[in-house]
Amino acid sequence: MEATKVLDAKGFACPMPIIKTKKAIGELETGQVLEVHTTDKGAKNDLTAWAKSGGHEVLKYEEENSVLTFWIKKG
Amino acid sequence: MTVNVMTSKEVTKTVFNNEELFILDVRNASDFNDWKIEGENFEYLNVPYFELLDGVEEIMEEIPTNKKVLVVCAKEGSSVMVAEMLSDAGLNVSYLKGGMKAWSEHLEPVKVGDLNDGGEIYQFVRIGKGCLSYMVLSNGEAAVIDATRMTDIYLDFAENMGAKIKHVIDTHLHADHISGGRTIAEKTDAVYWLPPKDATEVTFDYQPLEDGNDITIGNTTINIAALYSPGHTIGSTSFAVDKKFLISGDILFIDSIGRPDLAGKAEDWVGDLRETLYKRYRELSEELIVLPAHFMIIDELNDDGSVSEKLGALFVKNHGLNIEDENEFRKLVTENLPPQPNAYQEIRETNMGKINPDMDQQREMEIGPNRCAVR
Q1: What PANTHER family does its record include (chain A) (predicted)?
Q2: Is 80 exceeded by the pLDDT of residue B279?
Q3: May I ask the CATH class of domain B107-374?
Q4: Do the domains spanning B4-102 and B107-374 agree at the CATH topology level?
Q5: How far apart are CA B7 and CA B141, in angstroms?
Q6: Can you tell me whether residue A70 is helix, strand or coil?
Q7: Residues of chain B that touch chain A, judged by Cβ-Cβ distance less than 8 Å
């Protein structure tokens, strides 16, 4: 999937993945896609809930070798 | 204002003493609704931390200034952040050390009784998850029953009591938590007892625990008499300890009864469950004090934090023991069951020795309440 920007938040514990994602999304235009990599398992529910409450859309989610990858479209 | 730290042990005291506490839980709503810190006089506010990144102004009015405030999250990090923000805004608050992860792993030992000739029995209350395990001590020897995976707590406790663990027993193959039984037995050279009917697929050696087996602790006669009591699992076994206590495993709880569906089909075992609760247990002394492997709600705790009740009292007040009609009973334990415990299949496979998840994976698997009962 084509992303406008890639955020590497691997190795960071909660709440850092979301703080970094929020900042990165803030730098994008509506409709652009942010790809987020994290190793924080809690991010699965939290990033999804955060995106929803902020009006963003999680287009795709993958989990491989304990790295979670999200593609989030800015709303 | 400074940010204070509260440990799981301190929160446990708050629960046992029925004290007031205001919990600001900053996990996401689904995690909060699934599982939280329960207390008789606790108040709650759930606002996910990711909605507070820009500030806490919006929730300031909802946080009381006249009672203790505890900020809680999954692992600690976010609760520290929110607690610091609240503190900067002038409030006096604490965060939970280690978060819900630590809460889930905290064990509080409570003495539940004296046994013959100086023996003692302790209940280990896993307050965050509702699991109960036991240590029987006598004359420098100990038996551990239904141990959790926090094995150091039992090993240290026995050492402090000057006792050597000789027997480790699981009443059944657990589906809601990872057993520490095998690890404790390996570290102490103790005998590990399991009901053979639950152990057909295990990958390690064990001592078969069968109806009528007697286990003696110490050189006095603290007798642990096994009573086959199937229904939650096909192998579930109870113990009469010193003819005073009935360790009931996941068959009978204080305010509920075991569910028969976690290791197969509910329909297959409902008859066994009925037979155990309505025939086998009825033949026992009503004076026996029931010590279950779980509690479901905080109301089941006695004033000292322990969970126990006389068998005779349960025959009167436990709804699951008072359903005369067999069909109605069948319905209760097979229909409208609560959701199954998180990862219960993987937990069973771990307890059989088939898979060996690392510590983080084990924690992940055990997240949430135990859900082994039906009311």
Answers
A1: SULFUR CARRIER PROTEIN YEDF-RELATED
A2: yes
A3: alpha beta
A4: no
A5: 31
A6: strand
A7: 28-31, 48-51, 53, 73-75, 77-78, 81, 364
Q: Show the domain range for A46.
A: 7-66
B356 by Cβ neighbours in 10 Å (0-12 / 13-18 / 19+) ranks as: exposed
DSSP, res A24: H
Place of tokens 């006095």: B220
ipTM of the shown complex: 0.90
Interior CA angle at B170 toward B167 and B174, to 5°? Answer: 155
- Cα of B84 to nearest chain A Cα, Å: 13
HSE (side-chain half, CA atoms, 13 Å) at B87: 16
Domain boundaries along the sequence of chain B? 4-102, 107-374
Mean pLDDT of B207-217: 89
The answer to whether the peptide bond before residue A15 is cis (omega within 30 degrees of 0) is: yes
Query: Are residues B28 and A49, on separate chains, in Cβ contact within 8 Å?
Result: yes
Return d(Cα B108, Cα A31) in angstroms, integer: 52
Identify whether A30 is part of a domain: yes
What is the number of structural domains in chain A?
1
Mean pLDDT across the stretch B269-293? 94
Helix, coil or strand: residue A58: strand
φ/ψ of B316, rounded to 5, equals -85, -45
**For position A39, which CATH number holds?**
3.30.110.40
Rounded to whole angstroms, the Cα distance separating A41 from A20 reads 16
- For chain B, count helices (H), then strands (E): 12, 20
Residue B81 pLDDT level (bands cut at 50, 70, 90): very high
Burial classification of residue B165, based on how many CB atoms lie within 10 Å of its CB (0-12 exposed, 13-18 middle, 19 or more buried)? buried
From chain B, pick out residues whose CB is under 8 angstroms from the CB of A53. Answer: 48, 50-51
Residue A14 forms contact with B (CB below 8 Å) = yes
| CATH class of the domain defined by B4-102 | alpha beta
Taking only the tens place, the pLDDT of each residue in B245-262 is 999 999 999 999 998 888
- Is the per-residue pLDDT at B337 higher than 90? no
Q: Under an 8 A CB cutoff, do A19 and B53 touch?
A: yes
Helices (H), A1-75: 16-26, 43-53
Task: Classify burial at B214, counting beta carbons within 10 Å of its beta carbon; exposed 0-12, middle 13-18, buried 19 or more.
Answer: exposed
